[in-house]
Specification:
With 384 residues, this protein is mostly helical. It has 16 helices and 8 strands. The radius of gyration is 24 Å and the shape is globular.
Length: 384
């Protein structure tokens, strides 16, 4: 037996150790440490931030949940939707009607079923999915710009209903949002003192929003990394080939549309709880365009990209509003200059163009490129 064979024999059973080393390397990677530090930071922020920044963070969480749903539809499956804001409105107003009490407000006799708020939140998400299911036969057969135009009609229909169905929506002035109650714990402005820090509605909702975002992200990650995700990507890249391989294209498109609608409904419920009042004007065309900007800027087909893009687009107007006195060309709303909302739209519009031209994978790809390890150089004496 040659020396080469004798030396190679002891290295054969090294596979289990290699897996352990790989797991250890992953646990010691900078990305893991960054996730742990970021998670700890998010948990302690309510003890240090004021109400303004907590609400801004909650807006970003709600936007991230909705963007994850849209990214599964548009980024992973290749289905363009311009009606995402409609399903957010279904979730927000569905929660108000299901959880609210019948009353008279601003000249409107409001309808309310008075259900437990935790049950109303779940039913509002299911309601958004059911409305998406009614539209899913169209979503299963149309694609690209044709589906975008069809979903665009949902915005106009939704705006007409929201402004004119006063008994359900409260009309132009909207309606108040009942605070969420869960396990005897109410997420309202009543003070709860923790470690000498008073917790109001924003502080309490912070942890509910974090839990909702975490569960939404983990579920979407599992879908995208599993067999459904591979089928969705196949439909996006090679629709005819996917059908030939046995993928039910129309059924997958319809199912993803329903799932995306449920994500939007959950985002709408969280937004309603943060705003404490639903206003029809908010759920318009601009909101749908903002969600498309989120997934393009963050990265199409990526859960992390949806979260990054949502944070960028939703926090930018808040930052401009807060620092409007210090920023050039930006003035406080109503003072006649460039409003923070307009300035932020110009900026993330430019960001969309820059990402499309220079960073097609979105902002999420920057982090992935930095965490990828370079391959070890091959031993010159090793046979290929």
């Amino acid at each position: 037996m040659s020396d080469t064979t004798a030396e190679a024999a002891p290295e054969a059973p090294a596979a289990p150790g290699g897996r352990a080393d790989s797991l250890t390397d992953r646990l010691r990677s900078p990305r893991t440490y960054a996730v742990l530090i970021g998670s700890l930071l998010l948990l302690v922020l309510p003890f240090y931030l004021d109400r303004f920044w907590l609400q801004a963070g909650l807006f970003a969480m709600a936007a991230a949940i909705g963007a994850i749903g849209l990214n599964m539809l548009t980024g992973a499956t290749g289905q363009l939707s311009m009606g995402h804001a409609f399903f957010l409105a279904v979730g927000a107003y569905g929660y108000c009607v299901l959880a609210g009490e019948s009353s008279t407000e601003n000249g409107h006799t409001l309808t309310g079923l008075g259900l437990p708020t935790w049950l109303a939140a779940i039913l509002a998400v299911l309601l958004a999915g059911a409305v998406g299911g009614l539209f899913s036969p169209i979503a299963g057969r149309l694609r690209g710009a044709y589906l975008g135009i069809a979903t665009l009609a949902l915005i106009f229909i939704g705006q007409h209903v929201l402004f004119n169905a006063g008994s359900l929506t409260g009309g132009y002035n909207g309606r108040a949002v009942p605070p969420l109650s869960l396990f005897g714990f109410t997420f309202d402005d009543s003070e709860l003192v923790v470690a000498a820090v008073p917790f109001g509605s924003s502080e309490k909702l912070w942890y509910a929003g974090l839990a909702a975002l975490l569960l939404s992200a983990l579920f979407a990650r599992g879908v995208l990394r599993g067999r459904p995700g591979r089928a969705m990507n196949a439909i996006r890249d090679h629709r005819i080939a996917a059908g030939v391989m046995g993928v039910p294209v129309a059924r997958y498109r319809a199912g993803v549309f329903v799932l995306s609608s449920m994500y939007a409904g959950l985002a709408g419920v969280l937004l309603a709880l943060v705003f404490q009042r639903t206003v029809p004007e908010y759920f318009g065309m601009i909101l749908s365009l903002e969600y498309l900007a989120m997934i393009v800027i963050g990265g199409l087909g990526s859960v992390a990209g949806a979260v990054i893009g949502a944070a960028f687009v939703s926090l930018l107007p808040q930052v401009f509003t807060h620092y409007s006195d210090s920023l050039p060309l930006v003035s406080a709303p109503g003072t006649g200059g460039l409003a923070p909302g307009e300035a932020s739209r110009y900026l993330y519009g430019a960001a969309v163009v820059a990402v499309v031209l220079f960073l097609p994978g979105g902002l999420a790809r920057i982090g992935l490129a930095r965490t990828k390890k370079p391959k070890a150089p091959k031993n010159p004496g090793e046979k290929s």
